[in-house]
Every structure is written in structure tokens, then in C-alpha cells.
Design goal:
By secondary structure, the chain is an all-beta fold. Strands 1, 2, 3, 4, 5, 6, 7, 8, 9, 10, 11, 12, 13 and 14 form a 14-stranded mixed β-sheet that branches. It contains one helix and 14 strands. A hairpin with a 3-residue loop joins strand 4 and strand 5. The C terminus is likely disordered.
């Protein structure tokens, strides 16, 4: 009569598939302890497996509005994640692990706050990617803060620091443009410790960024046979 109840149990699922438009994720499995009352639903000790990796942690929803999530990602496969959104293979390979947390109101996305401190270990089925990403998201300001993060390819390193919504500093050094074959063929080769160095600043919004910077190349050659100007 008072709409008062308490439920405790366990949930388990195997072979779950989800799709929206052209995005599809299959082979999902999960298990968790569940408690629920009129104001709070909690998944404690949640273990979810998908896209070659797993998530272990806790999730709670209060009054069907406020969500709290905290846990650890382990070995999420970059290629499998990309295949859910792309029609062709990505060409890069690595696995992502690390702690994540988020909280906010599902009915008001401006309240969302999220943090991830992720490590990337190189894979073996494409050009290996490694690195570290420390990212904070503030829904109120729309900022994505990147704190002293980097991505590394076999002959290239990109260092990132700043805000995607305000000012992001990018420092790139590449000694072999073959690292970019999955996205572009650049007819430039380096010799005698030659390299390309890019220092760039991204300002403005993510949808309409403004880019300023400097590019320096030394000890390089251009393959004219591979170069075509339209």
C-alpha cells in the first residue's frame, strides 16, 4: 500500500547482442548481484564482457535519474571496438585497460562528470598502438580535459595536453610515415635520423576547431612517382 519493497538477487546473461542503426555489439555476457527498492537500483560486483575485454565494478541508479558508475576496464580490443562502428578494419591494434568512473543525471546530461585513466598495450594484428590517456569530462562546460597523455606507434609519438573544448596542445614526432598507412599514404621517407615534428594548438569547439602550429622536416625525400597533384 505504501509502494515499499526491497528486492535482492543475482542476474546473469550470455550471448547478448545490441544494435542501433549500423552499430552492433554481439557476444556480450554479464553477471552481478542486484538490489532494488523504490529509490535505488544497484548492481554490485558487476562483471561484463564484450569486444574482447571486460568491465568489473559497481553501477547504481537513484530515482531512475541519477547514475553512478565506477570500475575497471581490462583488455578492451581496439579493433573489435572499431568494428562495431566501422565497415572496414581499422588497421591499428591495441588493448585498453584502466579505471573509469562517471556520475550524473540521465535526464540532464550537463550534470555528467566522468574520468578515465587508461593504459594502451600494443596488439599484434595491425600497426601496434600503445600509450596512456588521462581524460576528464565535464558536462556543464562541455570540456574534455586531457592530462599529459600520449599515443605511440612504431615510429611515431603524439603527446597531448589541455582541453578539447578550449585549448589542446599537440606535439608529434614521426620518423616513418608508414605508421599512417591505414589512413593515408604519405610519399615521404627519412634518412640519417630524419624526422617530422609538428607542434599544434587546437582551440575552439570540437565541431569547429581552429588549428595553429608549426611543422619541421629534416633529412627527408619525396617520392615523385607516388606524388600526384590535381
Amino acid at each position: 500500500a505504501n509502494n515499499d519493497y526491497a528486492v535482492a538477487g543475482n542476474v546473469e546473461g550470455r550471448g547478448i547482442a545490441m544494435h542501433q542503426g549500423t552499430t552492433r555489439v554481439a557476444g556480450v555476457s554479464l553477471d552481478s548481484a542486484v538490489t532494488a527498492d523504490p529509490h535505488r537500483i544497484a548492481l554490485k560486483g558487476l562483471r561484463l564482457s564484450a569486444m574482447g575485454g571486460s568491465f568489473a565494478g559497481n553501477v547504481a541508479v537513484e530515482d531512475l535519474a541519477t547514475i553512478q558508475l565506477a570500475g575497471n576496464l581490462r583488455n578492451f580490443d581496439i579493433q573489435q571496438m572499431a568494428s562495431a562502428f566501422m565497415s572496414k578494419p581499422l588497421g591499428y591494434d591495441g588493448v585498453i585497460s584502466g579505471p573509469v568512473k562517471a556520475d550524473g543525471n540521465l535526464k540532464n546530461t550537463s550534470t555528467l562528470m566522468a574520468h578515465a585513466n587508461l593504459g594502451i598495450a600494443p596488439g599484434r594484428r595491425g600497426i601496434p598502438v600503445s600509450g596512456h590517456l588521462a581524460v576528464d569530462y565535464n558536462g556543464r562546460s562541455g570540456d574534455v580535459m586531457v592530462d599529459h597523455s600520449y599515443l605511440a606507434l612504431p615510429h611515431t609519438r603524439v603527446d597531448l595536453s589541455g582541453s578539447l573544448g578550449r585549448q589542446l596542445q599537440v606535439h608529434l614526432v614521426s620518423r616513418n610515415f608508414s605508421d599512417f598507412k591505414p589512413v593515408a599514404v604519405v610519399p615521404v621517407t627519412f634518412s640519417n635520423n630524419g624526422a617530422a615534428t609538428v607542434d599544434a594548438t587546437f582551440t575552439g569547439s570540437i565541431s569547429a576547431p581552429r588549428i595553429t602550429g608549426q611543422v619541421a622536416l629534416n633529412n627527408f625525400a619525396v617520392d615523385r612517382k607516388s606524388t600526384r597533384l590535381n
